[in-house]
Structure formats: C-alpha cells, structure tokens
Sequence to fold (214 residues):
Amino acid sequence: MKIGILGSGNVAQSLGAGLLKHGHQVALGTGSPAKLADWSAQHPKARVGSFADAAEFGELVILSVKGKAAVEAVQAAGAQRLAGKVVIDTTNPIADAAPVDGVLQFFTGPNESLLEQLQREFPQIRFVKAFNSVGAAHMVDPSFQGGPPTMFIAGNDEAARKTVSGIVRELGWDVADMGTATAARAIEPLCMLWCIPGLARNEWTHAFRLLKRS
Ligand SMILES: NC(=O)c1ccc[n+]([C@@H]2O[C@H](COP(=O)([O-])OP(=O)(O)OC[C@H]3O[C@@H](n4cnc5c(N)ncnc54)[C@H](OP(=O)(O)O)[C@@H]3O)[C@@H](O)[C@H]2O)c1
Fold:
C-alpha cells in the first residue's frame, strides 16, 4: 500500500521504517525535510517531502504531529487532498504545561478528544485513532512477555476501522475496536497512563493488553 505519513518525529520515523519493512511504500511529509536527512539515508526507498506531498502520495495517511499542531498540519497537507482517505490519527492532546507527579497534562477535557475535534473540523476525512497509547519504539513488531499487546482504535467510519485494524494486526498487534470517535475520550488518556512509569521511573518498556474470559 502507498502510505503517506504527516510528521518527522519519533512516531513518523518508527512507523515509516516499520511499514517499509512490512513491504509498503512510504512518503514522509514535514515542514523541514532537512530534519529527516539521516533517516532518509538509512531508508533510501522512502520519499521525503512536504505535508502536501505525503498527503497526495498516500492511499492511506498517518497523522503523527504534535497534538497542538494537528489541525494546522492537516490544513498544510490540504483537507481536499485527504478527502475520503483513511487517516490514522496517532496524536495526543498533550499541553505545554509540565507533567504533575509523572502525569501528563492535556489541553482537552474529559468529555472531548482531539480525534473528535479533527473529525468535526474535517468531516470529509475518515479519521481512526490508533498508535497513541504506546511509545514509538514499540509500535512495530512489539515483543512483550504475555503475547501481543492490544491496540485500542476508534473512529466514526466502520470500513476505515476495518482497514486500520488490518494494518495494526500486520504490525504485530491485537486490535480492540472501541467504536465511534467518541471512544477517543477514553483512548487518548491511555497515553497519560502509559507515560507514568516513564516519567516517574524512566521505565518505557511496556504496553497494554486487554484480557478476556474465554
Ligand atoms: N513519541 C512517542 O513515543 C509517541 C507515542 C504515541 C503517540 N505519540 C503522539 O504522536 C504525535 C507525534 O509524536 P512525535 O513524538 O513523533 O513527534 P512530536 O515531537 O510530538 O511532533 C513533531 C511533529 O510535529 C510537527 N509540528 C510541530 N508544530 C507544528 C506546526 N505548528 N504545524 C505543523 N506541524 C507541526 C513537526 O513538524 P515538522 O516535521 O515540520 O518539524 C513534526 O513533524 C504526537 O501527537 C504524540 O503525542 C507520540
């Protein structure tokens, strides 16, 4: 599949490398391509260009920019270019304020989410939340005691959730489909929970798994 990734940070680089490894074609989009010179040299098959280039390239697109810049990055990519496409939203609404006792602060409240804001702002795009509740280093082919971890996903379009479930499984995860975008109110704060051991004790090697009674 041709996958465009909006972003140049750890998530974009990790998913970009992983998707290439799994046989996909990848284009990363950024406002500053120079930032990706080293990554590009290591991944010569990947394209690097503007946000608009990556949006145009992708049959499926991944949004992996700073939460506060999510709307701006989609605008830079061009909402029209993304119309009808599935966009995996990896972002978290992390505020600039410092964490409190290892707990990140969000700029959203409990009965809202960044995914819902994006979906309201760009109704023509089929957003699906995924990959926000684990560190970039574990996003592809995660290896943990106790089997594959669980990726919680949500989005309004059922077919889009199915497409994203396929990719998430291909990258080594179990999927828990939580339904419509409203569920992101619960999925985004998993990022806070995931980061507590890291911020409090510098432990970053864990992931969530949903256990079900057989
Ligand atoms: N890091 C992780 O382990 C992790 C794990 C799960 C989820 N997440 C979430 O995934 C997202 C990406 O995280 P990250 O750590 O890879 O990167 P990041 O440092 O949070 O964000 C870097 C990206 O944000 C873009 N950006 C910043 N300000 C912008 C603006 N005003 N307009 C447009 N773009 C702007 C940058 O653009 P340029 O390319 O132009 O510099 C860059 O691509 C975040 O929302 C984060 O919360 C991160």
In short: DSSP finds nine helices and eight strands in the chain.
